[in-house]
Amino acid sequence: AQSVAQPEDQVNVAEGNPLTVKCTYSVSGNPYLFWYVQYPNRGLQFLLKYITGDNLVKGSYGFEAEFNKSQTSFHLKKPSALVSDSALYFCAVRPPEGGADGLTFGKGTHLIIQP
Amino acid sequence: KAGVTQTPRYLIKTRGQQVTLSCSPISGHRSVSWYQQTPGQGLQFLFEYFSETQRNKGNFPGRFSGRQFSNSRSEMNVSTLELGDSALYLCASRRASSGTSTDTQYFGPGTRLTVL
User: Fold this and answer.
1) B104 at the A interface (CB within 8 A)?
2) Per-block mean pLDDT, blocks of 10 residues, chain B (116 long)
3) String of b and e for B59-87 (b: at least 16 CB within 10 Å)?
4) How far apart are CA B5 and CA B25, in angstroms?
5) Of A11-25, A31-45, A65-79, which range is least confident?
6) Does residue B43 belong to the interface with chain A, where contact is any CB pair within 8 Å?
7) Do A106 and B48 touch (CB under 8 A)?
8) How far separated are the first and last CA of chain B, in Å rounded?
């Protein structure tokens, strides 16, 4: 069975500084990886995904993520943080082609951007 | 294009009752999945429907069930409610046009269920 780990419950970053939210995964075969963001009392908003190809994936709102197969990681990054980036971030994995399983999510990381 | 919609947004029930939640997917999306979000367990997959058939089911008791209609709208039912069923229930849709699992799931705002 697949699993996702987000080792940090909370990440604090000063506005304007680069941010990284960490994610590692475990899955048989080549993974499909996703990042979502959740604002208070809202559903999940899709940020970006890795399916295949270039290891650096660019997504919405200036976010990007780097897929590292050898380290089984898919860290979310942004060069310059905004206060409005403060939210709960989820990394998710889906089994490779042919699976009908839902997404398996990490526990989430609270990102706090300080003015 | 309208996003995924869920009704109702908030619901209060008492133990032992049953509840039905509704989800309308994005137009053209044929797959609907349901997830439960709680502070303790996080986000957990309940089940996925495609073309009115349940394709897969997460590790939840039989009290949790669902169905999908011919227009791809989906309902989720929880019978004999327990206090632990209090959660945010999220619906997500994806195109799933070729059965592939690479397409993105888009989530609705959720239904907040409180069981007293």
Assistant:
1) yes
2) 93 98 96 95 93 90 97 97 97 79 89 97
3) ebeeebbbebeeebbbbbebeebeeebbb
4) 7
5) A31-45
6) yes
7) no
8) 37
Summary mean pLDDT of chain A: 93
* Token pair in block for residue B20: 């039905």
Cα separation, B88 vs A101, in Å, equals: 20
CA distance A43 to B66: 20
Read off the tokens for A53. Answer: 């190809």
What's the gap in Å between the CA of A110 and the closest CA on chain B?
13
Average pLDDT score over residue span A48-76: 95
Angstrom distance (rounded) from CA B108 to CA B59: 22
Contact B57, B47 (CB under 8 A): yes
CB contact under 8 A, A101 and B56: yes
Collapse the DSSP code of A5 into the 3-class scheme (helix H, G, I; strand E, B; otherwise coil) and give the result.
strand
Structure confidence at residue A99 (pLDDT): 54
- CB B67 within 8 Å of CB B21: no
